[in-house]
Design the sequence.
């Protein structure tokens, strides 16, 4: 087994507007495709699993649209929960006080990557 984290390249930094967001499906071995997204706002660039802590539903309103109308918060399309872009913490809605699952992110040569530790397994899709 590898002792180093695995990197998964997602896209170019310029592929995500500022402010903006983009969703991805990541293949991890034999697991079904796992949904995640990257949000960009000012100096913030963060990746989260695309799963609302309330019901497990995907968050986006439209493809790649995870931010609210004024691009202040990540907003769940189902019941409107609001999450801080910088840490995924829920400030308002049915899952207040809970957080999105963060994924380690890095930018190398303007390419955005998520970095997963050896043996990392996303929980089963809900
Ligand atoms: S499913 Fe996201 S707030 Fe209910």
Sequence:
């Amino acid at each position: 087994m590898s002792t180093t984290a695995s990197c998964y390249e997602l896209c170019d930094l310029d592929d995500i507007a500022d402010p903006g967001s983009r969703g991805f499906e990541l293949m991890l071995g034999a697991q079904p495709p796992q949904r995640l997204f990257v949000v960009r706002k000012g100096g913030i660039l963060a990746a989260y699993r695309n799963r609302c802590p309330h019901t497990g539903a995907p968050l986006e309103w439209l493809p790649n649209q995870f931010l609210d109308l004024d691009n202040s918060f990540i907003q769940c399309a189902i019941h409107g929960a609001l999450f801080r872009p910088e840490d995924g913490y829920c400030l308002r809605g049915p899952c207040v006080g809970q957080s999105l699952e963060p994924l380690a992110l890095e930018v190398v040569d303007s390419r955005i990557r998520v970095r997963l530790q050896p043996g990392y397994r996303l929980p089963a899709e809900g």
Residues 52, 54-55, 57, 76, 78-79, 81, 93-95 surround FE2/S2 (inorganic) cluster (CB under 6 Å). Strands lie at 6-12, 20-26, 34-41, 44-49, 74-75, 82-83, 90-92, 102-108, 111-116.
